[in-house]
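Here we describe the complex-level prediction in full. Unlike the single-chain runs in Section 2.1, the two entities below were treated as one system.
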Amino acid sequence: MTTTVAYDEMRTADGTVRAHYGPFADWLARTPPERVVQKNDEAARAFHRVGITFAVYGEDEGTERLIPFDIVPRIIPAVEWSMLERGLLQRVQALNAFLADIYGAQRILNQGIVPRERVLGNAQFRAEMAGVLVAGGTWAHVAGIDLVRAGGGEWYVLEDNLRVPSGVSYMLENRRMMMRLFAELFATQSIRPVQHYPDLLLENLRAVSPLGIESPTVAVLTPGPHNSAYFEHTFLAQQMGVELVEGQDLFVRDQKVYMRTTRGPQRVHVLYRRVDDDFLDPTQFRADSSLGVPGLFDAYRAGGVTLANAIGTGVADDKSIYPYVPDMIRFYLDEDPVLANVPTYKLYLDDERDYALAHLDELVVKEVHGAGGYGMLIGPMSTRAEREEFRARILARPGNYIAQPTLALSTCPTLVESGVAPRHIDLRPYVLSGKTVHVVPGGLTRVALREGSLVVNSSQGGGTKDTWVVAG
Amino acid sequence: MLSRAANELFWMARHIERAENTARLLDVTWRTSLLPYKVRELDLEWADPWAVPLVTSGTATSFYARNGDVSADAVLRFMILDPLNSSSIHACLAAARESARIVRGAITSEMYEDLNGAWLSLREHEDAAFGAGGVQPFCDWVKMRSHLFRGVTFGTMLRGEAYDFIRLGTHIERADNTARILDTKYHLLLPSVEDVGGAVDYYQWASLLQSVSGFEAYRKIYSNVISPRRVAEMLVLRDDMPRSLHSCMNLINDTLGNLCDERNRELMRLAGELHARLHYGRTDDIIHQGLHEYLMDFLERISALGDEISARFLVPAD
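The structure predicted for the assembly as a whole is:
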């Protein structure tokens, strides 16, 4: 775990190509470097034309960028995937059970397995949701679970994303692109398909409609065209064949939700919402929100509409709750966790905090309500001044931070300026819950394009790769 | 479909059509400006051919306020590049592409890729227009992109509401534009209906026909010298001429027939009445009423029709 040598996804330590990378490594070896670059450029041009771009916060209005796409795939053998799959389904089932419990009977708090104040005092806990019976008992309909592989090849869950996880459109578009660029590799090996994701999503959303609705109307709720993930919202709506709505398109009457159409008001039964809890309903949450729908919460609580994900899921993916997920799995499912957590120091506990403060130069410190990789200290790469700043912040509010060992994230060959070189990666599979719990094989592989960097977030210069699960 | 999405599609189509019309206007103005003939009534503000696109597009006031005197270069920059001029090619394509991006789920991916591709290469073509390439190739490019987009739409889109709102937008914009072009030239050339003839008239009317792709059609239909009466007949009443008012109203009327039910009787009445005036109209009566008056009345009616479409479908009250 403390090793600094990263696990190479393509080659073993002695340089041998791992079996599941065989066909791709052959292609790479016999293809002239300029042809590889050409393929990569071809992909970038196609992504621009198709408009798979995202708006960058903090840059000029209207700046559109591509998330860099890398043509070297991340390949996972099927046997390994089946272990990951079992672990992901198990974890998401436990997280859903946890959400149902804390907004219901609170057994896990009563039995002291998760400290009450960690949950009830969490800014992401929505007291308004207490006692609300969500349709089908499903809370996190779409979960993005971030996985990493450390130096010995062992997998860890880095974090859970249970609010509005994004990126699945890149998984699908990357696959489309790779099938275009590498038709011959798809023809000769068995690469498991992912393109049915939108169908699975729609099936799950239809399955959680309010009671008594035979043929529910589903819609995707977006904050609007200025949102950085707007492309994904339009993409998913189009792929599912449902309307993409903004708050201004909806209104609530008699605790039911309607959209304004050219043929008059039309009832909406299920909203796959990509708007954060805070902005959903100005009469219930942030009053200054112009993205939401007045009365939506009331309609939701009365069972007039299903929201996916449910309101209040953010508490279960918070970093302060993360250390307890293995306990949840044991508690709700009576099973041992298949996937391990990264060992985590809870800095509100004295002994763990003392240890962490003494080892800041080795650890990664994360802010518990942070997102996007901003409020973070990577010890081995930090300056003394940065460590002192974090020390002060931790001491002022210890409950706001956790610390973990710095993992040597595994690397995957990646096309960069100097040629093909190893870069650190992670993996976000998407787990769908509703009628069944399901995960499409693979997910979105994110890659830190800067040499040595461990930050894969697209907002910080990360790129993406297609992820192949191959027989073997 | 969602009213907001229908509204975006309607305006996407209008903006593309408007970009094409602006390109047509500039192209024909460019050709006119090369002619050695000068117009007789030099005291008219549109005596300078470069004032014509400003008057026709209704942007003269804002042009003079911001740019001062009319010159070929100033008008071209205003009508091609100016992001604040809602008739400029740049502003129209920017608006059309933004609408398409917002409702890209309601159009086909081929349509989005085509329009996005045009937008991504626009800057390069603009640079060429004011550099080595010249304005005419630029105008041709804009027209071709508009034709291409219409072709992609025709060839790939499901025949349904979304398609209907696109067709409505295209034809309302087109009818509006044809009426404006005809009106400007009518003013220019015909202080009275009888005052016709001479080389200047020939070239002015020929250029008007060219601007609506009507020159070759005119020859085919009439096999005769160009007369203002026949030009007016062709662009107002003939239903086989794709940019005529009658032809546009045929499409608008049919499309509204698909979209309307008994809740939209007033809209059907407005469209039906306007259509009947063209369908049963006679050239003599139009000339007798005065072409200018006739066209002004038409513009008012088509604008009222647009407002009613908006109120019924695009921006409905709860």
